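Notebook entry, structure prediction.
Reason for the run: the old model in the group folder had no record of what sequence produced it. Starting over properly, with the input documented here first.
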Amino acid sequence: MEILWVLMALVMLGFVLLQISRRRRGAVGLVEPGHPDAADPANYGFAREEELDIRMPGPDEDLLDVLDLVQRTQDYRGAQQLLAGTEAKGERRWQRVQAFAGAASLELRQRPGGVGETPGGQWLRVWRAEAPKDAGGAAVHAEFLVQQAWRTATPGSDDFRIIMEEAKAACGEAALLAPGDPVPYIVELSVARGLGYPREEFEQLWLKILDRTPNHMGAHLAALQYWCEKWHGSRELAYSFAEAAAARAPRGSLLAAMPLFAVFEHLPEVNLVSGFYQSEVVTKAVHGALHAVHSADRDDPMQAHVRHLLVFFLVRGERWAEAMNQLMVIDGHVGALPWTLSSDPAAEFAVYRALAVAGYEANGGSPATLPH
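New structure, fully documented this time:
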């Protein structure tokens, strides 16, 4: 019997290697950098790998300017003013709350503090102390606690639960300070996933968000995690949630791209199916996402999230020209799925970008033939 299992394992390994071999003999050849046949992303005006911004999925110059000011001066008031002037129910407010919380969390990790040393992120503590009724500061503090839980503790551990319970209380406080603001409830979606809310409790939370902002893409992406197989749902429940969101999406909404995120969250760890990325389920989801970005407002800050995921699927599906079209829009920023799952998001993005360039040129493309 043991010999049989060994033989089966060898057959499976041989199949995987065969698929890799076939891919490498296909349209894209792998050569060393500097080789005469090597495609050069710089020919397309793409940023160098070391210049890629890993903090955000796309540009937000106002946020970057304020982040720089806050971190340089340790004065929270710039962040307070920016959030106060950002539409409460829009996607950008949610992204900015995440960015400020992430900056404070990263500062604390870099400078945890000690005897005679001020810990990083002190500006957020001062913000909460000096302006306890400020809704923006309360929301950033709640998101900060959520990020601290995921970054510093193991899900399911006592430490994780303690921080998440504190985050849940902070979400409630933030919601009381701004009853119409959906952001505290969107923050709580991550708490619900971490603490494993029963479905009835999660759905009640979700209804509060829908009452305030029914087409919020960021909220839908956060809720999708709860319904995924790896957390508290299943592939079927996640697909159903994503497809329902896409079906009710108003014209110009990026919710039509939700099925692509559901597919991504349930990719097989080992793909033994030839042509998986050209399969009907993937192709349909990709087409939905392409339609979404083509019809959405160019200023929608969630566009970048969808385009980054499209690059991943289009490269995997060997749809080189379409991948290049997406890269021309998003290049320079890599703070989005799937790159943020890597320990080096810039390097991961650069690999896919190089593959797209190589595939595009191997099929007759050039900088001159790419629309700008």
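Summary: The chain has 16 helices and no strands.
The old model has been moved to the deprecated folder.
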